[in-house]
Design a protein that fits this description.
mainly beta, six-stranded mixed sheet, five-stranded antiparallel sheet
Length: 384
């Protein structure tokens, strides 16, 4: 009689799993400062780091209780940067400091990609654990969306740290003079890395603003593309400047301010008199004609530095005026003195330095090609 055989099977109880995702550093949400153009945190400096954790417990004790995340199989991290209807390709790095993201040997993920406020970074994890005793595979999935919020309250303004009109007295030595502007956000200045500047000048010939020409604008020294421009006051006659400034992260918030720079003499008075021999005698041989210019501070020293002074003489009030020349002192001989003689003069303000232009429009230049400059009277001579 044939033996009947039956088999048996060993049943193992199911393993107990506890799956979670650990945040080791960084943040799932960023903040973006639109004025400074910065992310907080900046993932290129402080990356967002994730590591799966899989705690396995075996009721029979054949498998020691512990974290088996590094033993998972078929681990796949899927990152999708969604920008509207488009999916932006991301670069997988070869180390934790390269690429947009990196996966290490223990299945930990490092994300270095910053996400704009209009983008979304979708992160998915899939991993499997194989139980050899039961010949079973357990799957684990995880998902997270990374976003960025706008944290900036913008209150952009431009502060011109200079009067809207500046009178430069020719009697003072200003030399190279700085003019500063500052782009502000809520009263806090933006540094040069986050603010752009451009200085312009007003062209009276066509009544429009234009960029500064470093060759022809002789008053310009430096700084036309920075927060501080420097001008040479000796070349300033009547110049209108404008500064434009904007946040580099948002040029549409451009601001502007202007100032008038002018050469200004203030109130002054010229007088002409005979220094001696005001009364004629038979022994009088000559007299001296003297010109003086005074302002509120008194007599101006060396007035010919600032004024074109031309003195005139005539024998009586019916005679024509005769020029004694340009200067402040002249000797008049006795034979010209009649007793009814008169002394007069014309005093005209001298301009700031400007190029010497010939009748044909040619600008005189030196051997290096730089314009030859001079100071000239700002008004015409008027006599009786």
């Amino acid at each position: 009689m044939k033996m009947k055989v039956t088999g048996g099977r060993l049943l193992h109880p199911s393993l107990s799993f506890a799956f979670s995702m650990l945040e080791l550093g960084g943040s799932k949400q960023q903040k973006y400062n639109i004025v400074l153009g910065t992310f907080v945190p900046d993932r290129t400096l402080t990356p967002y780091q994730l590591k799966p954790k899989l705690i396995v417990k075996d009721p029979e004790g054949n498998i020691p209780t512990g974290d088996y995340a590094s033993a998972m199989k078929n681990v796949v991290w899927t990152l999708r940067l969604i920008d509207g209807k488009n999916v932006v390709a991301l670069t997988r790095g070869t180390s934790a400091t390269t690429g947009d993201y990196y996966v290490d040997t223990v299945n930990a993920l490092t994300i270095r990609r910053n996400v704009s406020t209009v983008q979304l970074l979708s992160v998915d994890f899939h991993g499997e654990f194989y139980n050899a005793a039961r010949r079973e595979t357990s799957e684990f999935n995880w998902h997270k969306d990374l976003t960025t919020v706008d944290e900036t309250e913008t209150n952009i303004s431009l502060e011109l740290r200079f009067p809207s009109k500046m009178n430069f007295s020719p009697f003072k030595n200003y030399g190279k003079f700085p003019i500063e502007a500052a782009l502000m956000n809520g009263g806090v200045p933006l540094n040069k890395d986050h603010a752009g500047y451009k200085w312009q000048t007003f062209e009276t010939s066509n009544k429009s603003w234009r960029d500064i020409d470093t060759a022809s604008d002789l008053w310009y020294v430096s700084g036309k593309d920075s927060s501080q421009i420097t001008v040479d006051v000796d070349f300033i006659q009547h110049t209108v400047l404008r500064v434009l400034a904007w946040p580099k992260s948002d040029p549409t918030q451009q601001q502007g301010a202007s100032t008038l720079l002018r050469r200004w003499y203030g109130q002054w008075e010229d007088t002409y008199e005979f220094a001696y021999a005001k009364f004629l005698y038979t022994t009088t041989r000559q007299t001296k004609a003297v010109a003086k210019v005074t302002n509120r501070q008194g007599d101006i020293k060396d007035p010919q530095k600032y004024f074109d002074i031309q003195m005139f003489y005539r024998e009586n009030d019916k005679a024509e005026w005769k020029s004694l020349g340009n200067g402040t002192e002249f000797v008049v001989q006795r034979e010209l003195l009649t007793g009814e003689h008169q002394l007069g003069g014309v005093c005209r303000e001298l301009s700031a330095y400007k190029p010497i232009v010939l009748h044909d429009g040619t600008i005189l230049a030196d051997t290096e090609g730089k314009p030859i400059v001079g100071r000239f009277p700002t008004s015409e001579i008027e006599t009786e």
